[in-house]
Amino acid sequence: YYVKEKYRVLFKIGKEFKKRLNTPALASLDLGTQTFRFCVGKVVDGDVYFLIKKRENVRLGEGLGNKKIISSEAFKRGLEGLKKIKEELFKYGIEKYKAIGTEVFRKAKNAEEFIKKAKKETGIEIEVISPEKEAKLALKGIIWGLKELGINIENFIIIDVGGGSSEFAYIKNGKIEWCKSIDLGAVVLKEIFDLRYPLNSKVIKSLKDYVKEKISLLPVDNPQQLIITGGTASLLGGLDLKLSKYIPEKLHGHRITKDRLEKLIKKLSNFDLERLQRVKGMEEGREDIVLPGFLIYSGILEHFNKDSMLLNEYGILEGTLLSLIEDYNYLPNYKNFK
């Protein structure tokens, strides 16, 4: 495999290379409160190959607050992030793409203005999806991730702690029993409490109490597994494993225990922002929201009375790509991801 920085080119040179090279490229974009992520894939002989998977830290929802307005600075960062993504997509000669907007686009009063501006300046059309559709797309990707891990479970809860909200979906016998979106995200929590680092024990307790109150709105089920996905989950896995860079194959299937999570929270809460930036595994631009995100996961473990969570690197981004494949009948009976 050829690996360079955050790029993940997964084609092997060989007799099938030319065939793969001439296959149409497809892309999915997941545009969230904190990050804009995208991946490019090709379908060859029943397999879905990833060519690249990358993200831009744009913090579109920063400062959204009670006014529910994307600030001018965030607006600019978002457009610049999309322009960078467009440049990457152009390199691969994308034939079809699907770009989805989640919580920040559902909440912001000027989201439509951003969508129109993005279309005008980049040509990228953004579809704002409901929490229910978000859960379905995430499930599609997660099921493939579980198959890759060789895991077959009857019921589980999918959890994606984002910047603006946290998404939950309870899956039973392959179907969504319920899905909930809670107005509780890492960026939102940071701004509500106007956090200043390091965090003392009093602030940590206040954060935990607030998270507990919000999460109490969820039904109390007894799933076999809690499966976490998304940027906050990947960051948690990276810090737990002390990875110097983002390596999806090492994160995928990693189990994060309650004990390890609490130790990590205790350790990081003693650091100022400058020290947090230097922690091995820290992603640039996330140092000020890492603890709010982890405290949300801590509250989730307590609510469902579980000792661990399973990290799945497949989620809404991969599910959106599969949805695109199905929409255009590129591969009616795809077999595998590679």
Your description of this structure?
The protein has 338 residues and is of the alpha/beta class. The chain folds into 2 domains: 2-130, 2-Layer Sandwich (Nucleotidyltransferase, domain 5), CATH 3.30.420.40; 133-316, Nucleotidyltransferase, domain 5 (2-Layer Sandwich). It has helices at residues 17-21, 72-91, 103-107, 111-122, 131-149, 186-193, 201-215, 231-241, 248-251, 258-268, 273-277, 290-303, 316-327, and strands at 2-4, 7-9, 25-31, 35-44, 47-57, 94-101, 126-128, 155-161, 166-172, 175-182, 225-228, 255-257, 308-311, 336-337. Strands 7-6-3-4-5-14 form a 6-stranded mixed β-sheet, with helices on both faces. β8 (155-161) and β9 form a beta hairpin. The relative contact order is 0.16. Residues 1-15 have low confidence and may be disordered.
